[in-house]
Amino acid sequence: MNITVNLIGAGHVGRVLGRLFAGVEGIAIQDVLTRSMDSAREAVGFIGAGTAVDSYAALRRADVTMLAVSDDQIVPACAALVAEGHQAGAIVFHCSGALASNLLLAAHQAGASVASVHPIRSFADPQQVVASFDGTYCGVEGDALALAFLTPVLTTVGARPVPIDAAAKTLYHAAAVFASNYLVTVLDAALRAYQAAGIPEAVARELAGPLVTETVANVLRLGAAPALTGPVARGDMATVARQQQAVAHWDGATGALYEALVAPTVALAARKRALSP
Asked: Least CB-packed of 35, 39, 116, 184 within 10 Å?
């Protein structure tokens, strides 16, 4: 295998995948194009391979092009790439978790095979992600030819590719938002409520820690319904009503969040009861 790879966009995700791909025998990171030469050079330094370029015209023909750009830049970046030609027979993929590979229609029409690869990780610390990438799940979808190349490469760098339904890509990404972003929002509500009850923020985090870690561990080990505890699970709706009123009185927005979570939790409790012998 002697495959050249170009990177368009090299933020945290692009840098991590670029560095991992660069470590695969037979794959050569070729050109790196970002919004500025400075950031392109920084990306090349992190990756440890490649040449920083300043325009689409400077990109050499590559077997594979990774579009690691923001979601709103995928279509224009693809169009700019295709405008320079040389995409027939190539592979073009993007890294969005929310959008499907059909956004790369221009590349497909130019003769490229297209796909999307979404690593299911938080990329706040690229160096740490590189060091611990082994076992990382990646949602993948796209043309068979593109996936025939990308799937074994991802496996080689330690990823666990998971085929997803392109038509449900937005729902797939919403699942990650629930599991990560909105979980943080709910935990923030808990920490602020502790503080409103007179507990210092640092102590509040210590108090919440065992509850959070044990609950998450139980959900991942048992499933959501069996892991549910608390007043809704017990059917103590009088306590729920008092809590909702207290939270709403303290902070209207957080009270609305509490109220919005009651009905889904009641449904989850019903599922738990249905599982009981």
From this structure: 184
In this prediction, residue 124 carries a pLDDT of 87
Please give the mean pLDDT across all residues of the chain. 96
- Give SS3 for 120: coil
Q: Please, which contacts does 79-82 make with residues 24 or more away whose CB atoms are closer than 8 Å? A: 79/106, 80/56, 81/8, 81/56, 81/107, 82/106, 82/107, 82/109, 82/110
Side-chain-facing half-sphere of 234: CA atoms under 13 Å: 8
Supply 146's token pair. 């593109």
166, 100 Cβ separation under 8 angstroms = yes
| Contacts of residue 194, Cβ cutoff 8 Å, sequence gap at least 6 | 203, 204, 207, 208
pLDDT one-digit tens code per residue, 142-163: 999 999 999 999 999 999 999 9
Per-residue pLDDT of 190-234, as tens digits, reads 999 999 999 999 999 999 999 999 999 999 999 999 999 999 999
Q: Which residue's structure tokens are 């799940």?
A: 137
Q: Where does the pLDDT of residue 1 fall: very low under 50, low under 70, confident under 90, or very high at 90 and above? A: low
| Cα distances (Å, whole numbers) of residue 181 to 94, 167, 211 | 22, 23, 18
Cα Rg, the chain, nearest whole Å: 23
CA distance 85 to 109: 12
